[in-house]
């Protein structure tokens, strides 16, 4: 049987996410370089940025007024527990004007991840503590390291 050859354009987002899951990195870090058919699978060549992964400081404000902070490296999606709620933070790029790190935030609901924030720097999680509703606010801020403002 003769075959007629043609091409089709397919968006890379789904493939980028699959490659990221297979490699254990954040999808926004993956740059697809090439795709080939290898028997019954796609062989995907990709690259990752050289150097350190973006870092953020996640600040959790507790209902009693105290706060905790955690430094999170965003080379791969990071999981946190906030009052028993599973939260996943993933690097989504940088703001083109300010250079601030942007993230997506997902919350575990049953067996699925539900997106709370598609891309941004601030979010809130609704949960309960001792049967009372609680709103836990988290901020993602680019941390400053000692010497960052020192002249070169």
Annotation keywords:
single chain, 152 residues, mainly beta, 2 domains, four-stranded antiparallel beta sheet, 1 helix, 10 strands, 7% helix, 53% strand, elongated, disordered C terminus
Description:
By secondary structure, this protein is mainly β. Helix content is 7%, strand content 53%. It folds into two domains: 1-51, no CATH class; 55-141, no CATH class. The strands form three sheets. Strands 4-3-10-9 form a four-stranded antiparallel sheet, with no helix packed on it. Mean pLDDT is 75; it is low at 142-152.
What's the layout of helices and strands?
Blueprint lengths: L12 H11 L7 E8 L2 E7 L7 E7 L5 E7 L4 E5 L2 E10 L6 E9 L2 E9 L1 E8 L2 E10 L11
Antiparallel strand pairs: 1-2, 3-4, 3-10, 5-6, 6-7, 7-8, 9-10
Nearest-integer average pLDDT: 75
Gross morphology is: elongated
| Cα-atom radius of gyration | 20 Å
- First-residue to last-residue Cα separation: 68 Å
State the low-pLDDT regions, or none: 142-152
Largest sheet, order of strands side by side? Answer: 4-3-10-9
Number of helices: 1
**Count of beta strands:** 10
Number of self-contained structural domains: 2
Instruction: Report the biggest beta sheet as strand number plus sense, adding barrel if it closes.
Output: 4 strands, antiparallel
